[in-house]
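If your schedule permits, I should be very grateful for your opinion on a structural question. Kindly check, if you would, that the fold set down in the tokens agrees with what the sequence suggests. Thank you for your consideration; the sequence and its tokens are set out here:
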Amino acid sequence: MLLAIDRREQPWQVQSVVGSRCCETDAMDNYLQRILRARVYDVAQETPLELAKNLSRRLNNQIWLKREDLQPVFSFKLRGAYNRMALLSEEELQRGVIASSAGNHAQGVALSASHLNCRAVIVMPVTTPEMKTRAVRALGAEVALHGETYDEAYKEAHHRSVTEGLTFIHPFDDPEVIAGQGTIALEILRQSKQPPDAIYVAVGGGGLIGGIASYVKSLWPKVEVIGVEPHDAAAMTLSLEAGERIELTKVGLFADGVAVRQVGVHTFSIAQMHVDSMVTVSTDEICAAIKDVFEDTRSILEPAGALAIAGMKADIAKRDLHDRNLVAVACGANMNFDRLRFVAERAELGEERETMLAVEIPEQAGSLRKLCDALGDRSLTEFSYRMAEGHRAHIFMGVQVENIEDRNKLLTRLQTSGFPCLDLSDDELAKMHLRHMVGGRLPASAKDLCRNGCRELLYRFEFPERPGALMTFVNTLNPEWSISIFHYRNHGADVGKIVVGVLVQESEVADWKRFLDELGYPSWEETGNPAYDLFLGAQTV
């Protein structure tokens, strides 16, 4: 999904103090001078501009990553915070500073205060993960937990600023903070052999894109500056559409580094003048971008840090860009470890290299093997089946594909092979919940079989995780045995793990045991597991 606003198609109106061309030029010169004077390198580093070779090859463009994730606090925020604080008077430094932040700005202010030997108080929401509060304290700052949301923490920080005489360090809407972030553009242009065609920048409150756009448009006005926001936190996109700052009633928190309800006054004016277009992207596209950067750099960006890469990919697809020099700012790497599982699950969907399907099969022996034949040598990421009442059953599966065309080819093949299917790749309910809820108890028809000498046996298996291994396992099963449960999930480990339920006549139990011995895969019987009795087994009345 892509939503883009392009000033070349419908120029944005510059309002208030930047309404005239004269004021526009004055504002540009003012920020250029501020950026050139900015003091950031006492604490910040000049980060590399690296060619993303894999991504470049795949997208048919020269893709460059500005590695702000390599800063001492793993984020660009250090630049703006220090530049603002380096201008404080001795008296202001003695009184100390205060900021409100749930993450990167907090660490930037804390490290800057440590270098300048001044007191720093960071007001953070009570919901802030302990990892982040611990990181801020480790840098020497005081942490004050207040409120459930950032807005409540922001108001508390302003209140304490007044009552305690502390200088408030704004995370984005301050000219010196903007100028500090603008030093990134200074480095990009110095490090580039030729002007890039476009620079993609994540947008939260707008400080980063404000600084970069001000510098770039002063020197290389033909270079496009393109902002990127999540679909569910698109404050700048909507504000530029409306011609005035819009306050969102709610924002998505996946990319928490850009989860801002309203952009700044200064940053909005700069964006109206200098930002060429805005692109919005989905959570899945952000996850795919995190994976892309990992494959090129072996570094893991946080969601907001990968936002520019996700927007660049969406813009390339929308405008069919080829052979361009494109820069994306990788602006942060403060990833919460517990999010990695979610990112890994959703990245393939965001890259459209996995499809999730609900497939209907005849409820009869041998159907599962026929379905595997139709899938061919494709790798599965998930496979969930429970025997159902009636003549048809539904399987929930994840299948790796190469692209949209390959996904459509798979759907056609399954349909023509007699397996009606529904594509659930864009279904949020299925991706978040149903994939973990497929199951149920043994249907009544199967219970009747069990009362007539047939047993449901439940086993766990492990096998080497390699392409085709799961299909090989299915093909070794006796086609006369009815499979009642089948669940597989690719965990990224070196072994695949599956659970299989099979209906076996009492007279065939010895054959089943012989099959296990000859199979060669480790197996464990779970028929007597109490969890199986509670949630999956035949319910007794």
Observations:
- The first helix runs from residue 21 to 37.
- The chain is about 40% helix and 20% strand.
